[in-house]
Amino acid sequence: MSRKLPHKDVVIVGFGWVGSIMAQELTDEGLEVIAIERGPWRDTATDYPPTYDQDELRYRIRHELFLRPDQTTFTFRNKMNQTALPIRTWGAFMPPNGVGGGGVHWNAETWRFLPSDFVLKTHLTERYGADFLPSDMTIQDWGVTYEELEPHYDRFEYLCGTSGTAGNLQGQIQEGGNPFEGPRSRPYPNPAQPQPFSHTLFGKAARELGYKPFPQPSGNMSQAYTNPLGVRLGPCTYCGFCEWFGCGNYSKASPQTTILPVLIRKSNFTVRDNSEVVRINLDPSGKTAAGVTFVDTSGEEWEQPADIVIVSAYAIFNAQLMLLSGIGKPYDPLTGEGVMGRNFTHQTISDAVGFFDNTKFNFNPFIASGSIGMCIDEFNGDNFDHGPHGFVGGGYMGQVQSNGRPIETTPVPSGTPRWGAEWKAAVRDNYLSSVKPGTGVHGSFYSYRDVYLDLDPIYKDRFNRPLMRMTIDFHDNELKQNAFLTDRFAEIIQAMGAKKVDKEYRQGPYDITKYQTTHLCGGVIMGTDPRTSAVNRYLQSWDVPNLFVVGASAFPQNAGYNPTGTVAALAYWAAAAIREQYLKNPGVLIHA
Amino acid sequence: MPRHSGASGVALSTLVALAFCTSVSPRAAEKQDAQDFTQIERGRYLTTAADCAACHTMPDQKQPFAGGRPIETPFGVIVAPNITPDRETGIGTWTDDEFDAALRQGKRPDGSRLYPAMPYPAYTKMSREDVQDIRAYLATIAPVHNQVEPNQLPFPFSVRAAMMAWDALYFQEGEFRPDATKSATWNRGAYLVQGPGHCASCHTPKTVLGGDKTEQAFQGGVIQGWFAPDLTNDKATGLGSWSAEDIVAYLGTGHNASTAATGLMAEVVERSTSKMTKADLEAIAAYLKDQPAAGHTATAVQATDPLMVAGGAIYHDVCSACHAIDGTGVPHLIPSLAASPSVHSTDPTTLVRVTLSGARSVATDQEPTAPAMPAFAWQFNDEQIAAVLTYVRNSWGSAAPAVTAHDVETKRVELKTRGEH
Amino acid sequence: MRLRRRDFLLTTAAILGGSHIALADSISGSLPWEPDAGIPPERIKLGSWLYFTSEEARTVEALADRIIPPDPATPGGKDAGCAVYLDRQLAGPYGSQHGLYVKPPFLKGLKQQGPQTEDGPAQVYRKGLAALNRYSSQGQDGKVFAELTGERQDEILKGLESGKLQLPEADGQAFFEALLKDIQQGFFADPIYGGNRDMVAWRMIGFPGARYNYRDWVNRHNERYPLPPVGITGRPEWTPKKS
């Protein structure tokens, strides 16, 4: 039996980037807001100070800042006819945990999606014809356009102090930026970060090959910055301990370094940590959310009533909470009907590792920020003619190497034994003179009928609730895309002057042990039709109008970029819809 | 309300027991007189400027002015009394004169003496009118029934009569007299600093009995395990390198280009100075900038000294992550170790303390970031802390006495005793 | 009060290598902070083995020296402390799969579904080391692994790696993969964990260690970084020389 807490205007489930943005926006509206977070409170000096944050074993290998699988995990299989087995330790992705969520330990790569990404189905069909798309591909338009999201991308970038070089200012293409990006209303708030040697070399080689390289947009500060909320960030020190780690010196944008200092001072805001929401409660009509029920660390169950429920956890957990709460029709891959769990996607990542003459090249790979790097965007989205290639989608590519941490980044040329004297010598001889971007090719992952989420029939979590089951595999379209992109990428690494380039293509089947990014998307997708989407263009549940499900869970398919910029833009977009429309007239915002 | 501040449970030395007239309703706000409203508002502001809450409100701020906060004094710990209008446990029955006598003469209604943890040696400079304004405001706050036994001192200090001797030695009664040769701004600043602001309570060094060493006024003193720094115009240890604007920014926001408030001063900024008017802060700055320099001199520790060599290595490897390789920090975010006066204080108490235990700077509406320094007690031994602090005190053109391993060891023990380390 | 929560953490020693038990809390008003906040790492203590038997330890040291052989410039896995590292890891949360999902059923899956064994690393090593020594002492070699020649040891390891050599009652290939990963991780991890003694691995490759500020070097292209490595607990130069 749960104990009932005092009523709030808004309850937020999951307190990462989206939860923080929603809380900041809705408290500004005067609403009483409580956020409930499964993991612990986290802050700079207490959880990842620069005194011991540089501990590769603890943070990177043993996953200090991530969810513990014994708290909850997923099951995984490639195909519907296989038995899904639990992910017992993280591999392909690393679900965040704790206040700040993934915003604590991301690399801070702060991209916008292309205008065409938001109208993908329409765009590709118009350009190549419906027959060009694989028959089981289930891509959709988002229901929101780039133009509509632009002011919200802009807000997030100015919140974060994103460092970058604009490529398209109000339609004018800018030298040194990404010429393929959608028009932006104003420049980045900070200039691009300076680039270390190998990153600079990549830019030079790409330019010589006829590409238009540009610095990766970065949430690591190129200089000290004060954001519009008055919160200050310091300059990045290129420590090389960014992704998987928190930032110890206030120079990486995170909820902690951009929003929380202001939000926590508001008398109409509270956050509960170490508390896991187990279900969204509906009133007897089933059409209105009454609040949520959560369990704290002592096992005590609490009911938090609220007028508005915002679900803003990690994408898969958003889908799981909806399914466990019985909201929305579960997706059935056999009939293609139902929405909850539909269009689950990830990313298609590969790499090319370059080995250089160590008497001529010294890259000091340990000098880097999380989103350092020079990139090209010629092969992303539909920036190139896919006609001759027989696939759709693409990705950015670049020398985006963020570290020289020795457990993770001691590459040896292919053909070298994995151990013994020869391995040891190769590690020694190549460490300073190799280029290992890690995620050199950052490709899209489009949606398919048989890639989806549902509740596992066998495995349970600590509360005896079914784990989420992922059914996911690479389709030919993504593998073809990856082979093409990886080859283009390797050409640039070669042109940097490498004596040897090892291509590391992404190959099927999808492997849960091989890290690919943590960009799991979909499951509670947005759209214009309640038969094929779970939330409308304002991220409002079609079934329960006082429920908003915000995050990468809303992506109908994943583009060839890191998702955080778009996730945050959607959060501001949804918050604006609540502030400007919903509160004036609570109820359905879009009549289907 | 902040739940987390002031975890130490001890407070600044400030004010004590106050009075209220028995003949009127304790709810002065019930009177609909506009004059009263003005007086109450003035009183509220002066109560903030005098930072009465620093001692009389517990850190959780749940019961404003209900007392209960322990205050360290040279005689032992005393507990700040309840100054709400509660008639039994507060000051609801005090008369105007009794209230005035408490603040300006250090006398209780029964004629016995207050302990100088209550800064009546400063409040005596206030005008009777200002004191009555404070009283008018305090009469409007919610009465709280909270019995506080302030006197928990050991003999002989438990005998309040002993304070008569103290007063004879150290207490100079008398209202502030403006200096006609100075500007109105200067005089306003002098009044605020000497009177309600009671800056000397912490920033003037004390005798063993807790009296001001008046010949060293504002040259800095140890209080509750912190060193309240030199407020004179000494270029190295005091405000000599600060402009008036730097002082205003510091008091108003808790941060300026070279430093950040933490510890007890963070509380002062949070509850008092950040809520004062810009004009008053400018007045304080004008007065402080017109004070002489303490004239502290120190010979720089040689760069080749083993402490400096080791300290330099530690600084570059660790501290430079935030404070920058050249010691300049990040203005308004990370203190500049090259410029911050606290770094070069004659007494390294604060420096050692924040290095051992870490510190969070104050959050204000203007500067909400409140960055924190991590604790280093686990990482460095006493000798290493001594080395790195000696290095930061003697680099980038500065000079200050070396910090010794013994200083650090003493501080570790002290913090442990305080239950803070 | 949050402060109590941290105290709880420390006093109950609920700190198991990064897996911290924390109490639910409600936070508002100001950013939580208290003196001495944080959960710094603990330096391993040298001394007797915590997990390995002396026979196991001897075997692991021999294995560590084959995976990372000594050379004139850099010690091998044994002298770098990789066996000590592994011993402490197996005695801690890593060895017992603390924090991982260990609920049954343990079904045999496809390789891409990841490990599905009930045994944690501690058991994998216990069984694997015993099986390795059984193989070498009861088979043609007639001696425990540590007593074999380097060439013969390498031959056995290659057999395990390729899967051509099967160990009695243990998955030799899985054992080898765990060993390879752990020994190399211990070699490159911060010295506080027992391996990478005196930062030998970092010196070998030119990694400057737990530094946090390269602002002075980011624009210095193709120039060797001049400062020596530093560990979380420092480097020799942190201690003032006696004058």
UniProtKB/TrEMBL annotation, chain A:
<feature type="domain" description="Glucose-methanol-choline oxidoreductase N-terminal">
    <location>
        <begin position="233"/>
        <end position="346"/>
    </location>
</feature>
<protein>
    <submittedName>
        <fullName>GMC family oxidoreductase</fullName>
    </submittedName>
</protein>
<dbReference type="Pfam" id="PF05199">
    <property type="entry name" value="GMC_oxred_C"/>
</dbReference>
<keyword id="KW-0274">FAD</keyword>
<dbReference type="Pfam" id="PF00732">
    <property type="entry name" value="GMC_oxred_N"/>
</dbReference>
<dbReference type="InterPro" id="IPR007867">
    <property type="entry name" value="GMC_OxRtase_C"/>
</dbReference>
<keyword id="KW-0285">Flavoprotein</keyword>
<dbReference type="InterPro" id="IPR036188">
    <property type="entry name" value="FAD/NAD-bd_sf"/>
</dbReference>
<comment type="similarity">
    <text>Belongs to the GMC oxidoreductase family.</text>
</comment>
<feature type="domain" description="Glucose-methanol-choline oxidoreductase C-terminal">
    <location>
        <begin position="454"/>
        <end position="571"/>
    </location>
</feature>
<dbReference type="InterPro" id="IPR000172">
    <property type="entry name" value="GMC_OxRdtase_N"/>
</dbReference>
<keyword id="KW-0560">Oxidoreductase</keyword>
UniProtKB/TrEMBL annotation, chain B:
<protein>
    <submittedName>
        <fullName>Cytochrome c</fullName>
    </submittedName>
</protein>
<dbReference type="InterPro" id="IPR009056">
    <property type="entry name" value="Cyt_c-like_dom"/>
</dbReference>
<keyword id="KW-0479">Metal-binding</keyword>
<keyword id="KW-1003">Cell membrane</keyword>
<dbReference type="Pfam" id="PF00034">
    <property type="entry name" value="Cytochrom_C"/>
</dbReference>
<feature type="signal peptide">
    <location>
        <begin position="1"/>
        <end position="19"/>
    </location>
</feature>
<feature type="domain" description="Cytochrome c">
    <location>
        <begin position="306"/>
        <end position="396"/>
    </location>
</feature>
<keyword id="KW-0408">Iron</keyword>
<keyword id="KW-0472">Membrane</keyword>
<feature type="domain" description="Cytochrome c">
    <location>
        <begin position="38"/>
        <end position="142"/>
    </location>
</feature>
<keyword id="KW-0732">Signal</keyword>
<feature type="domain" description="Cytochrome c">
    <location>
        <begin position="184"/>
        <end position="292"/>
    </location>
</feature>
<keyword id="KW-0349">Heme</keyword>
<dbReference type="InterPro" id="IPR051459">
    <property type="entry name" value="Cytochrome_c-type_DH"/>
</dbReference>
<dbReference type="InterPro" id="IPR014353">
    <property type="entry name" value="Membr-bd_ADH_cyt_c"/>
</dbReference>
From TrEMBL, chain C:
<feature type="signal peptide">
    <location>
        <begin position="1"/>
        <end position="24"/>
    </location>
</feature>
<keyword id="KW-0732">Signal</keyword>
<dbReference type="InterPro" id="IPR027056">
    <property type="entry name" value="Gluconate_2DH_su3"/>
</dbReference>
<dbReference type="Pfam" id="PF13618">
    <property type="entry name" value="Gluconate_2-dh3"/>
</dbReference>
<protein>
    <submittedName>
        <fullName>Gluconate 2-dehydrogenase subunit 3 family protein</fullName>
    </submittedName>
</protein>
